[in-house]
Every structure is written in structure tokens, then in C-alpha cells.
Amino acid sequence: MSPTTSTTVQLARVATGSPLKPILKSSSSVLGTRRSRDDAGLDNHDDDASSSMEGAQSPPRKRARVEFDLENIEVHEIGARSIAEIRNEIRDTLARHAQGEDEDYDVLKQTLQGKPVSYDDDDDDDDNDKDSDPVTIAKQRQEIKGYFIALTSFAPRLGRSCDGLVRGLLQCQWLGRDDQFAKIYIHFLAALVSAQGPRLTQVLSMIVEKFSCSRPFEWAVDGWAPVAREVVQERLHVALRYMLNLFPVAESVLEPILASKYPFHEESKRPHLVYVDNLLRLRQYSPGLKNDIMDLIISRLVKIDVEMQMDLDDMDDKLTAMVGMALKSAQEHEDQDEDSDDSDNESVSSAGSEDDEYHRVKTAKENIEKMDTILDNLFELYTPMFADPQSQEAMDVFGDLLAEFSNLILPTIKSRHTQFLIFHFGQRSERLIDAFCGTCINIAFESQRPLVLRQSACAYLASFVARGAHVPGHIVVNIFEVLGYHLDEMRAVYEISCRGPDVRRYAPFYALMQALMYVFCFRWQDLIRSAPDDVDKEDPLSYLDQEIEWVPEIKDIMRRNIYSKLNPMKVCSPVIVDQFAKLAHHFRFMYVYPLIESNKRLRLSQYSVGAYSNGGALRDMSFDVNDESWQQLSSYFPFDPYQLPKSKRWVEDDYLPWRPIPGLNPEELGDDSDEDDLDEEEDEIDEDTATEEGVEENH
């Protein structure tokens, strides 16, 4: 066909005489047993495989399938050379390269990277006109397709001596071209890996590296029709699924690549969100990587969670309010321009004045948005799996969540939101509740475990039981009694050598005692065996000054341990001790104010062991010797109210809010308090939320 016949378009097979032979032969491979092309699931489709994405103007369906018929690759010849001619050129070029002559080899690399090379003898003055001529552009498009088609038969020769060429081939912008080119390119990748087993890592790395691409300029190619992001992502997964199906060893090679290509935590939210979305898609067709993918996502999510919490803790009220304003502004602009971060940046800059403040607010805002969107996606992913919470499938999935909780979340101090996955799904049935509580109890009372892990398990268990709106009362009683039993055992052991309260020596005991007081503050109604008939269960005030019968042993457990030599009321968090004392007194459970008052005259330093017992080390470190807060437990409880604006919809009905009792006056020692001050004191039992008050008010 003459190059000048621009109106003639001929469909032809890629090979001149017969269709191109399959690249995967029946012989053994260095990659192990290979599956057939039929097994790969990419050759037999009902849809028209020859349809091109080029020129399509209507938006693609979400996650639309990109179909590949690798047995019937057709090209539109518009004056392009034949495949046989291109094949001969490549053969000669590789032969000269082997002899050390690289001029044609370098030209070939440029050509395969999309840089056009002229084969006509026309004058240079006509070059610019030719480059913009539609026929020339079409010819160049078809020619680069021809090169990749021809290269499949030379895959065995693309060994170490051709590393530069292979690197160039893998850098080709194949995602931004048409559907036909993507088919040809994936066909070539399979041929390359089939012939050169060690290239598998390079090919998989190239594919995964593009998981974080989210903007058109990252894949667009001049002269080719724009390609939608959904189509780009689908092409990536068609290629990856093809490799996984053809080469069984690919899963083990892929696992470390996924971790190495994960966006760094300081990168903006967009690469994170797109990368995680692609990981979740990969999880759907790669069963062997399901757990590894979730471990990777959760581990990186926890890091963001902790960084976000630490950043917000360090901010003053002004900066916290600025974060809230930036989040609100970003939400308002989200629907206006999905592919632009300009509105986000403006919303932050308008709130800030100093460069340092701008950076801190922007970082906090982006971390919150990363957390929020990723968690929202995970909640959505897991929800169908717990449609029947009694099923074995739900139990198996929850087992995976428990493993991630035990290995990744529990050991991390200051994780604030990631754990709500287990909080939400763990309340779907009593069987799941029991599984979570059992896991925490086992960790809390295994002496081989690190102390910090055991204390954290106590906090998680207490917070789950206290805050879980769907945790039934009888389970609250059972957990309280189990914890009380272990508390008595610890006390019996520790009291033998105890001289007085010492958080460093008896930390497990104090952590458990604090957990029980925390549970009592939220679930005291569930610990009541019976109450007079005139008590209204919906009105806490109606319980005041009533003759209440508590569950047997509950009161004895608390009394034995509170009045022990270990004196937990001096060491446990003052906020929790104060709230417990209020409720216990007014519901006639226990009167501990005399003990609290006497503890004010007690100095913890006289019982401390080690270098800090005499206060010298504290003075050297500029500590205030009169400040005993460092010798007391923190009041960290991990399931305090969830405040991420988007994903909180999943858990809003899962936790019990703190409900102060109006008019409850704790001051029995003759010191009256203003009701407003009391409300503030009661509210202190809620830990600071990740977004703080300023952000919460804006959402």
C-alpha cells in the first residue's frame, strides 16, 4: 500500500504470512511451571477485542474491564513498513551491538522510547510539516507497535548485554497510548519474562511503580488520545493479573516490591490513596497476597495515625482550628475539581500566616485526609464479609483482623483510629466479641510478653468493653470478674514485697486496676444485680441514694485491691480515679474520698526504686521533684470517640458516649463546685480526639 494513499485503511495480521506464534511454549522455564494462555484468562472474551480506546469520548465505566485477545492482534497499516522489515532491522541491529557497534542500537532505543526516526530521503525542510501531518503521525504510531510486535521473537536475545535496551523498553509510556498498543506491550512483557526469567522483577517493579500515578500528565503521550484514569488502572491490573497467572512464582517476587514502592508517609495524600486503591484491586485476584497486602496497608496506616496524633498534640488551639478550617474548605472544593490539589493548597494557605505554620497545618490536614479516606475504603471492603457475622467466613476474616491488631496496632503507642476496624466489626456478634476479648486477655496475662504490650492489652480490653455500644451486659460482668480474678492474683504476689505504691515495679497491677475503674465509670448499670422498682433505667439520676444490689464479688474485688498496700488510687490516672470516686460514692458502691485525701500527703518518690528514688536524677534532668505525674499511669484508652469526618459514619453507633449526670456533686468535703466546672471535670474522662476540639467543631 502506498504511503500517499491516506484515505485507505487496511486491517492486516501482524505477521506477513501467518499469525504470530504464541510466545509461551510448552518447555520448562526458569520461573517454574508456567500456565497456559487460556489459564491466564486473557484470550477468550465475548467483547470485540479489536475495539480501540483511541478517540473514545464518553467516560468509561468505573473499573471497566479492558479485554485482551492476544491471539488476534491487528494493526492499521498507513504506509508503515512490514513486520518482516522491522524484524530484519532488529536482527541486524542486535548483531552489530554484539560486535560493539552501537550506533543503530542507540537509534533503536530512541525509537522504542517514542522518539520518531525518519526513513525517507525527503529534504529536512519538509520534516516539520511531516511531523504534524496526520498520515505521518498515524504511521509513527503503527511503526512503534510494529517494533514491539517484532521484538517478541527476539526476547531470548535480550539478556544482560541488552540491559540498556530493556530499561528503555520498560520506561515506555504504554499506558497513555491506545488499547491496541497496550495489548501488544503486555504481549511483549510476557515474552520477555518467559525468555529471560530474571527480568520478572524488573517487569513487576515497572507495573507496581505506576500504582501511585493519578494525574493524566503522568501517563499522557503527545499525539495520542487522552486516556482516562480508570482505563489506566485497569490496564495495569490486566498486565499484572496476566503475569501472576502465567508465572506462579510471581506472587513471591511481587510481595517485597509492593512494600518498596509504597509511597513515603510524607508524600501527599493522592499517591497514597491511589496506591492503596490499586492494592485493594490486586487483593481481589491474588489470594496468596491477601494477608500481606492488608498487613502492608495497616502498618503504613498506623504510622500515619501516630504521626498525625503527635502533630496535633503539639499544636496550640490556633493551629488546630486552622487544620479544621483547611479540612472544611477542602471538603467544599472536593467535588469541584477532583484532579487538582490547588483548592487544597489555597484552603491551607488562607488559614496560615507563617511558613512553618503553613507547613504544619498542611501536613496535619493531609494526614487526616489520608487516614480518613483509606479507613473509609477499608470499612467498605470488609462490610460485605460480615453480612452474616455468625458465618465461618466472618470468623476467618476477623481472625486476620485480630492478627493485624496483635502484631501491628497493639504494639504501637498513640494509634488513634486504625483500631476502630476491629472495634466496629468485633461487635457484630457475641462470638466475635469473645474472640477479641480473649485475645486481649491472653496477651495481658502472658508473663513472657513485654510489659508495655501487656498494659496496652488491658487498655484495649477495658476501652472495648466500656465503650462498645453492642457489648451486652452479661459480657461486661464476665470480663469484670475475669479481670478481678487476675487482679487478686497479682496483688497476692506483689504485696509480699510491697512497701508502698510504685508504678515501675507493679505496673501490670495498676494497669488492670485502672481498666476496672474505667469500665465501672461507663458500665456501672450493667454491674447492678437489682434496683428498687421506682428506678428508671433511662434516668441515671433515679439511681442516686437508692439501695442497689451489685453483682456478687464486684464490690469485694474493688475493695480488696483499692485498700491494698499497693494503693492504686495514688498511682492510677487522677482523672479516672476522681470520676470513679464520684460515681462509687453517689451510687453507694464505695466511699474512697478519705483514701484520696490521705494520698495527697503521700510522696511516691519515697517508694520508687532505682535511680529516681532520691530525686537526684530528676533534678539533673530539670524535672520538678514535686511533680509526680511521671510516676502515674497515663489515661490512654484507645476507643474514645472517633472524629475523622468522612469515615466516622461507620462507627458513630458503635461506641457509648460519656454521659455526665446533671447535678452530681462530688465534693463531699465541704468544698462546693460550680456546675459548669463539674461538667468540665466529667468531660475530662474523654481522651483528646485526633482532630481536637477545633477540628471537631468544623465537622
Give short descriptive properties of this protein.
3 domains; about 700 residues; RNA_pol_I_trans_ini_fac_RRN3; mainly alpha; elongated; RNA polymerase I-specific transcription initiation factor RRN3; disordered N terminus
What would you note in describing this structure?
The chain has helices at 37-40, 83-98, 103-112, 127-132, 134-151, 163-170, 179-195, 199-209, 229-246, 250-260, 269-285, 290-313, 317-334, 342-349, 355-382, 392-409, 420-425, 430-444, 451-467, 473-494, 507-523, 554-562, 568-571, 574-586, 593-599, 616-620, 675-683, 692-697; strands spanning 10-13, 74-77, 528-530, 549-550. With 699 residues, the chain is mostly helical. It contains 28 helices and 4 strands. It folds into 3 domains: 10-261, no CATH class; 287-468 and 639-699, no CATH class; 500-633, no CATH class. The longest helix has 28 residues, at 355-382.
How many strand units?
4
Helix content range of the residues, please? 40-55%
Q: Structural class, from secondary structure content?
A: mainly alpha
Oligomer: single chain
Instruction: Identify the strand order in the major beta sheet.
Output: 1-2
Q: Would you tell me the overall average pLDDT?
A: 78
β-strand amount: under 5%
Total helix count? 28
Which regions contain 5 or more consecutive residues with pLDDT less than 50? 1-34, 41-71, 75-79, 115-125, 338-353, 611-625, 666-699
Number of domains: 3
Q: What is Rg?
A: 33 Å
Q: Largest sheet, if any?
A: 2 strands, antiparallel
How would you sum up the global shape? elongated
- Report how far the terminal alpha carbons are from each other: 66 Å
Biased composition (Basic and acidic residues): 35-48
GO molecular function, one term: RNA polymerase I general transcription initiation factor activity
Protein name: RNA polymerase I-specific transcription initiation factor RRN3
Organism: Xylaria hypoxylon
